[in-house]
Design a protein that fits this description.
alpha+beta, five-stranded mixed sheet, two-stranded antiparallel ribbon, 5 helices, about 30% helix, binds zinc ion
Length: about 180
């Protein structure tokens, strides 16, 4: 799938669409995450279901995201699967003239020209996913409370950490000790 085609998937036509309810499905796949430059996501598939309720002056959009993505484990740096399941809502008010600054305050309410042809939700979907991403991901502990991270990496991490705690001292403390002796 090329970039242009992918962007087209995130355009909802509203011109000439009669009042009523409509349903759409879009996939946020690896190509989407690359195009949106969401570097935190290595791979994955989120199925996005969109319900659009169209009235004369108002379009109400409900988004349901469901799927699994792959992110980098903060402990061992290997990929870890993260299930995601969340909802967002967007209201689009249709007006004869859009005043300057009218869209500055609220990301979830858009004010658009009533003659608009389509809604481009690509950036909205990008921001919704960014907000839903966990800040820290690690491989889960097993039933015994042991980390399921890559054992080889954990070995290296343990070796790096162990001598540091036991042997190394802060040179600034040594300097202070010397000062005290001179007094
Ligand atoms: Zn890990």
């Amino acid at each position: 799938m090329n970039e242009k085609q992918l962007r087209e998937d995130f355009k909802l036509r509203v011109a000439g669409v009669e009042d009523g309810s409509y349903c759409f499905s879009v996939s946020c796949n690896k190509e989407f995450f690359e195009l949106a430059e969401i570097e935190e996501v290595l791979d994955g598939l989120l199925n996005l279901r969109i319900e659009m309720v169209r009235n004369e002056k108002l379009i109400s959009l409900s988004f349901h995201y469901e799927g699994e993505i792959s992110m980098t484990c903060d402990r061992c740096l290997l990929p870890v699967n993260v299930p995601l399941n969340f909802d967002t809502r967007l209201l689009v008010k249709l007006v004869p003239i859009v005043e300057e600054g009218e869209n500055d305050d609220d990301d979830d309410i858009w004010v658009m020209d009533e003659n608009i042809y389509e809604l481009d939700i690509f950036h909205y979907v990008y921001e919704s996913i960014m907000l839903a991403l966990p800040h820290r991901v690690v491989h889960e502990d097993d039933a015994n409370g042991n980390p399921t991270c890559d054992p080889a990496v954990m070995d290296i991490l343990n070796k790096m950490n162990a001598p540091k705690d036991e042997k190394e001292t802060d040179p600034r403390w040594d300097a202070l000790k010397n000062l005290n002796l001179e007094d």
